[in-house]
Specification:
Two copies of one chain form a homodimer. Chain A is mostly helical and about 210 residues long. The first copy, chain A, contains ten helices and no strands. Chain B binds a DNA duplex (16 and 16 nucleotides) through helix 3.
DNA sequence: CCTACCGATCGGTAGG
DNA sequence: CCTACCGATCGGTAGG
C-alpha cells in the first residue's frame, strides 16, 4: 500500500471538511445534524466520530485551515515586489481568485464562527483580525496621504465589503458573463480611483513640506 | 380602555418580532428554539403560539416587514427631487441610516431567508430583488455612460457590498469615532469618484455624437 | 360563549 | 466502524 494510515486519515478528514462546508453553507451549523453529514458523506455517524471528536471540531478544523490560507495569501502579497499600489491591486486579485473556489468555506467562516465556544472561537477571530490588518496596511501603504486613524478601519471594511460577499451573487467559472477576474478589475478600478478622490491629510502635507524645507 | 383588542394584538406581535430578531441574529434561526424566544419575551411558549401559528411565521413576518421598509425607502428616494447623482447620494445615506437601527433584522434577512419554505421564501427574495433593482436603476441614472448590461449587476452589488455588512464592524450611536453618517459620506465619496474613473460606453458616446450631428 | 392564555406533555429527533 | 441506544430537548398541542 502506497498510502500510510496517517495520510489516509488526513484524506478522509479533508473529504469530511469538504462535505461539511457545503452543508454548513446551505443550512448553517446548527441547522446541520451529524446524521446529515454522515448521509452526505455516504457513511455512518459513528465513522464521523472516529475522525472528529465532535461536531464543533469539524467546524473548527474547517475554519482554522481556511483562515490559515487567507493569511498565507495576504502575507505572500505583502512581500511581493512592485509599488505599494501594485501590491494592493495584486492583493485584491489574489483574494477574489481564492474566493472563487472557496465559497462554501467562506460562508461558514462568515456565519458560523459564533457557534464555536470561546476557546475555539478566539484563534479564528484572531486570524480574521490578522487578515483585516494586512489589508489595512496595504491600503495605508498605497495611499499614505488619504488614510488616517479615523478612516483606516472604515476604508478597509469598505474594500472588504466589495469583495467579501461575492458568493451571494457571483458564481464561479463563467456561470454569468462576468468572471471573478473581471470583477476584481472593476473593484480595483472603482476603489483605487475612489481613494484618489479623498482629501489629502493635513499632517501628511505638512510632513512633506517640512521635509522639503530642511 | 383606549387600546382596542386588535391594536394590542399587533403591539404584542411587534414585541415578539423585536426579541426574535435579536435572537435570530445572535444564534441563527435553527439555533433559536421557541423556548428561547418564550424565555427572552418573559412569557410562555403557548402564548407565542397564540400570536403566531409557528416559528416560521415569526421569521416570515419579521422579514416581510423589514423588506417592505427597505422597498419603501428606496421607492421614496427614487421619486425625490434633484439630479440623479443627488438621488443616488440620498439613497446611500437613507439606507445606512436605516441599517443603523435595524442591525438584528438585517442579519436575519441575510442569514435566515433560506430556512423559510419556498412559498414563504419567494416573496422575500422578490422583495430583495426589487431593492437591488431600485439601486441598479439609481446607479444607471446617475452614470448612464458608465453602466452597461455587463457591469450593471456587478456595480450594484459592489455598492451593496460597501454598505450592507456594516453590522459586522460598525456599531450604532457613537460606539467608535466614526458614525453611520460619516461612513455614508465615505461610501459616497469613494463610490461616486470611482464611477467617474470607469471608461465611458462606446455606444453612449456614439449616441451622443449621432444626436449632436443631427 | 369567545378570547386569551396556562401548566403539562405529546411524538420525534438532536448530539454523543 | 455499525446497531442500538442514552439523557435532553426540539417544535407543536392537549385539556381546562
Amino acid at each position: 500500500m502506497a498510502r500510510t494510515r496517517a495520510s489516509d486519515h488526513d484524506l478522509q478528514r479533508e473529504e469530511i471538511l469538504e462535505v461539511a462546508a457545503r452543508a454548513f453553507a446551505a443550512r448553517s451549523y446548527p441547522g446541520t445534524s451529524m446524521n446529515d453529514l454522515a448521509q452526505a458523506c455516504g457513511t455512518s455517524k459513528a465513522r464521523l466520530y472516529h475522525y472528529y471528536p465532535g461536531k464543533d471540531a469539524i467546524l473548527f478544523d474547517l475554519l482554522e485551515r481556511y483562515t490559515g490560507r487567507l493569511i498565507a495569501i495576504a502575507t505572500r502579497e505583502a512581500a511581493a515586489p512592485g509599488t505599494p499600489q501594485a501590491r494592493l491591486r495584486q492583493l485584491i486579485h489574489a483574494f477574489l481568485a481564492e474566493y472563487e473556489h472557496s465559497q462554501t468555506r467562506h460562508i461558514a467562516l462568515l456565519n458560523d464562527v459564533k457557534f464555536l465556544d470561546p476557546a475555539q472561537r478566539e484563534p479564528i477571530l484572531a486570524a480574521q483580525r490578522r487578515v483585516v490588518e494586512l489589508f489595512a496596511k496595504a491600503i495605508g501603504a498605497a495611499y499614505p496621504q488619504r488614510v488616517d486613524d479615523i478612516n483606516r478601519t472604515a476604508l478597509t471594511m469598505l474594500l472588504f465589503g466589495m469583495i467579501n460577499w461575492t458568493f451571494t451573487w457571483l458564481k464561479p467559472d463563467g456561470g454569468g458573463r462576468l468572471s471573478y477576474a473581471d470583477f476584481a478589475q472593476l473593484v480595483e478600478a472603482v476603489f483605487m480611483r475612489g481613494m484618489q478622490g479623498l482629501p489629502a491629510r493635513a499632517d501628511a502635507e505638512v510632513a512633506g513640506a517640512v521635509r522639503s524645507t530642511h
